Amino acid sequence: MIALGALVYLELSAVERQQVSEAQRRPPVPPLPATSEETVVGEAARLTLRLLELNLPVPLPSPKEEQLGNPGLQWTHRIYDLTLPRPRELEPFTEPVLKLRAENPLVTVQVEDHPQHLELRLGVAGLRTHTLRFRWLDRPPRAALFVAGLGRDLVLARRLLESPARITYAVDPAEPFADVIAERLKLAGAATWLQVNLSQAHSSGFREQGQPKLNDGDPSAAELESLLTQALARIPSVQGVLVLARAERLAQAPLAVIHAVLPPGIPVVVIGSDQQASELCAWLRERKRPCHATATDLPDNSTPEETASRILTAVARAQLLGDAIEVLTASEATLQAIERSSPRFPEAGVELVDASALVGELGLSQR
User: Fold this and answer.
1) 158 — alpha (psi -120 to 50), left (phi > 0) or beta?
2) Helices (DSSP H) in 61-110: which residue ranges?
3) What is this structure's pTM?
4) DSSP 185-221
5) Cβ–Cβ < 8 Å for 208, 202
């Protein structure tokens, strides 16, 4: 019995010495300091600023934000989502971010390289605070140029059709020559959309249920339905609908009328404030209607230089995000800007396409 006890003691001593030896060989891991909400929020704010200062191949877009944590510890997770052609080397994307880890012991960085995307996950004290997601395209970046408000000037419409640039035209059915111009667009094989102007009259008068409360002169849902039906009859071969949501807060009922009148599958582009356009598009996509939301101004008195700047911004946005839509007002300044700036699309490797192809493909799963 004594011999057996001695043997067990020797084996346990050997195991203990082996564990001590392994612990000495492993580098010590410093414990994370005690983390408070103030520390996480403050360090995350500094990390947000440092990300904007990094020399990345492309500038970061505005992040999507989500709140994480529990009542005892809450912070904001910022997600930067970009879509662009896959680069030959990933180091220009990963190395500047990895250097942030050496600057601050609280910062953590994880790199995940997938066939379709690269994801960089950053955190403070082990809590994820930022995600950079680069999605790789298997095609060139694309952009669509709208010229909106056609229907008043026959000469301008003819000159626009003579432009070699691939343009998507939005015809306003309220204009006097809308049907004549639409027929010319059809004969030319041009991409033709119907323009619907929703104003302040639609923001409060329509209701999802019950009787609408309308002021004098406000169109009713039946009148809007009649307008759309007549417009579709006057403008053949409509490939989509461009909705100008000019009201500060637009109800969903006008969209319900538009959705009911339009043939299935016809896409919609909604112009309005960021939140409003996104909400209206989300409502349409829930009903399987392709929709793209965009926030833009349509000034009537832009100079050719100002309009050209907007076109070049669309080129850069397509390079950054993979797709871009820019809406311009039908005018002489727009014509000059398109003639001047349209060669920049092929020079930048951006394909100019009809809006219906772009929205039809992306509109049901808009980022």
Assistant:
1) alpha
2) 91-103
3) 0.67
4) HHHHT-EEEEEEEE-THHHHS--SSS-----TTPPPH
5) no
SS3 340: helix
Instruction: Compute the CA torsion angle 142, 169, 61, 280 (nearest 10 deg).
Output: -120
- 235 to each of 145, 223, 325, how far by Cα in Å? 20, 18, 23
List the pLDDT tens digit at each of the 367 positions of the chain: 445 444 434 444 554 554 444 444 444 434 444 567 788 889 999 999 999 999 998 888 889 999 998 887 888 999 999 888 888 889 999 999 999 999 999 999 999 999 899 999 999 988 999 999 999 888 888 999 999 999 999 999 999 999 999 999 999 988 999 999 999 999 999 999 999 887 644 544 333 333 333 333 344 677 788 888 888 888 878 999 999 876 555 566 788 888 899 888 899 999 887 777 888 888 888 889 999 988 777 777 889 999 999 999 999 888 877 888 999 999 999 999 999 999 999 998 899 999 988 887 644 444 4
Q: Quote the tokens at residue 180.
A: 């004549």
Sequence-ordered list of residues with C-beta below 8 angstroms from that of 188, at least 6 positions apart, any chain: 161
- Distance separating alpha carbons of residues 134 and 56, to the nearest angstrom: 12
Give the DSSP letter of residue 58: S
